[in-house]
Batch of 4 targets.
Target 1
Amino acid sequence: MCAFHACDDPQPRRDLVINVLANHRTWNFASIVVDKPRVNPSLYDPMSFYPKFTAMVLRFVFKGRVRPGASGVLIYTDTLPFQKKKALAVEVAIKGSCRRDLPSLPFQICHHRRESNAWIQVADYCSWSVFRKWEHGNHNAYNLLRGRLAATEIDPMSRGDGTVYY
């Protein structure tokens, strides 16, 4: 099985993948940008960090984007490359968001290797395009995928007092 990984793929492959994604009209994505040096140290613990920021993006996705008549929600993540404590925090955050924002719908969380799920690879490319915009000021991929972006990426750090902790 072929797997795409935006940061590792050669530019010609990235161009092809982004072109396919940009021209496929039946999907969109949401993104959250967490500028870690601006995160209050009280949230550094994985049991606080992951639930807080995972819940923000999931709440956005769930509000108004679950089709009427849906019988359930499937949430796919890449295999979690964390130690047990961090992996548990991510799992708790996802389950908490689902229970709160999808009270009447059953949900299932699946952790798959990215190679086995095309949507995880799509998420990788979308995340990479947002990262390149914010971290390097390179808007090329972002601008090509902007039409698939459901809304401007969530920037929770913009609501803070601007303190940089490290």
Target 2
Amino acid sequence: MIVLAVDTSTLHAGAALWRDGAVVAERQRIVTTHSEALLAMIDEAFVAASVAPADVDAVACGAGPGSFTGLRIGLATCKGLCFALGKPLVMVSSLAAMAARAPDGRVCATLDAFKGEVYAALYDVRAGVPTLVGDVRVLPPGALLPQLEGVDHVVGSGAQKYRELATKLLDEEAGPRAADVARLAASRVAGRDFDDLSTAAPAYVRPSEAELVKQQRSQ
């Protein structure tokens, strides 16, 4: 099984190829515009792994939450590849991908949501497989802090930015890795559990700036 995975939820963009149980190529870059770098990273991963695009069994995309523009670019790219290659799509939560790198236990995955808020979700992780506990939320760090009681590890840029959340920070890696998106997607590909290509959408969690402005004008 070969899975191509990308994640563009943060400025730490990535592309990875998963083949028969292991990552065989991964490219990561800090970007300013995902559209300028993503296709090049995907191409570099194919070349490094000696894999042709037609050989992939599925395309996996980090679903967010995160950068609205980045998520749209990532999903549009993945959908374009799926249509062109005739391959199925798998959406993977970017927060779950971060939690997946933690040891077994209760994990809080965070991403900086700006505006004084963080995206956050709690997961029970067993053997690298995260199970969501509750809902994915966007909230001020002070509101998240009381919920970290009983949490074994914290990951992500939200805790890096707001150090009061970092008492159990697992590592200094800011965002999700495409390699973890690929690994989580692979189990779904094996079970032929795919997302609908026409309706798949990013998990924004909160309204976009344009939607907020529209709501304010209508009130």
Target 3
Amino acid sequence: MAIAVSCAPKAPPALVGAPKHPDFMFPVAPEGAAPDQAGRLDRGWQYLQLNDLRNADREFSAALKQQATFYPADAAIGYLALARGNDADAMMRFDRALAAEAAYVPALVGRGQALLSMDRVGEALASFEAALAKDGSLADLKGRVEVLRFRATQDMLGRAKAATDGRRWDEAKAAYQQAIAASPDSAFLYRELAAVEQKAGDPSAALDHYRKTVELDANDARSWAAIGGLLEANDDVVGALPAYERARAVDPAEVPDSVLTRVRARAALLKLPAEYRAIPGNPGVSRGEIAALIGIRLDALVARARPRQLIITDLRGHWAQQWITAVARAGIMDPLPNYEFQPGLRVRRGELAMTVSRLLGLVGAAKPEFLKKWQAANVTVSDVPSGHLSYPYVSQAVAAGVMPLAAGNFDLLRNVSGAEALEIIGRIEALARP
């Protein structure tokens, strides 16, 4: 009678020469795996490295048949599919292994290789990076990841640039976002994405990405300047000013002097009282408002005057008290004989001509040739004869181009509007510049 004998699985022949698939990662069995399962995995792997795919398949399938949830066998069959050139089957097997053990490094590496064969570089990179996050000792994989990052970034940058040139904003944004996913610490990618978002009419997203750029690279002058521009466009000059100043500190060419001067002036204006900021819209400015304009806009000119002692009794609590006091002590404007300044009294052009004349005298202290010319002028004014008490002031203000005539008339008794007052002070500012 014949007796059945159970034979141990045949061992593969000894591996001779280099492994046929050295870039495949052996799917290690977890602790507690049955010895015969681990043994079949080892034998199957040896067959695979000999390129004996039929026997490798037999061993891996037997291990999986013994336990359907034995995920190392699924990963091993995934590598077998890669060796056969069947990337889709390989992906399916690696995904099954990862469904059982999401952080299983051999399956993550194999999945990345399958994705790479399918030219899905970004996804392959993500799979490799997940493997590295779990096991940072994989030196060969680190090098591959760096190469892939560069390759993926270059490819996506080319697509992003072409889409940007074609004004296909959504496509360009998607390409830059993919490049950022591949290289999240590259500051310039956020800057380029922000530029596209800005062109596409999404300033909020652009601002966020410019800020991310300078977070990664504090010396990106272009991004600092862009932040300043976006904030200024949104009327946030207080936020725009430090951004512009930072850009200028890195590269003065990024922010013109005129821009910085404008924003500094706007930021300074915001710190001033609301009453001052309302002056441009006033139909008729007051003595206090004129004094404030002079004290703020022409402070350097006021400082040139020799201060005088005087008494003013009606300024306590007034928003412009400090500027009224400075302008009155400089002799540019006078209190009334009763020691009141009457800061709320409307200013007429005749009174303002006297104030302008005194300011021109301070300008002329540094430019005497101009002052002589203004004082020597005999301007013909239809409604102010040369014998009028106000004529010298009017003639000088007109000759200097500060208070021009309208159809030959000066209109001594007309109230001065806020907009007109700003123009007059602006002309004096220009004359006072070195």
Target 4
Amino acid sequence: MLLTPIAPVFARLAGATDAQVRHDLDRLPAMLDEVDRLITQGVIGGEHLNAADFQIAPSIRMLLAMTDIAHLVAGRPAATLARRVAPAYPQIPPAMPTDWIPNPHAPRSS
């Protein structure tokens, strides 16, 4: 695949070190909780989609497409909004070590 040699270059340019990716994954459940809160409050996900919907939902949809972390998003209001805004999205094969992926049922630290 043509993109394979380019991916590490883009990752480095974006600051995607192993430590940063693990940190971001650890924060993901809390970030998804915030998206769900915004939906519940009607800030996003209303009858008429707004700019914030189109900014947030595609990122959530990409997470749903990532086969190794989709379970962290599935079943949430954020997942419903993401599929509403971006119904079709290609699957992204697993790319992370399984021990990096947070357990959605583990207690969260504050």
